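The record is passed on directly below:
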Amino acid sequence: MNDSDDMSDHPPTPEELNVRSLAGLVVSVALAAVGLFILPVFQSFGLAFRPAFWLVLAIEGVALAGVVISVLTLHRERTLE
């Protein structure tokens, strides 16, 4: 078995990242990081713990959805269909 046979077994790697997905990934990770520390801010505005917690949970859910969508479309090739 020579080296050229080993190379054909692996799928080709994409040459270009989807810039829109990469930007979405960065924004989603930043939103998730902000969500970790924003609970005291919501409480300082007068929200009780439970409503502030559910608001933070919603923010983290949106960030999670953004990360998942961005990762799934990161290497997708663009078509004109």
The longest helix spans residues 49-72.
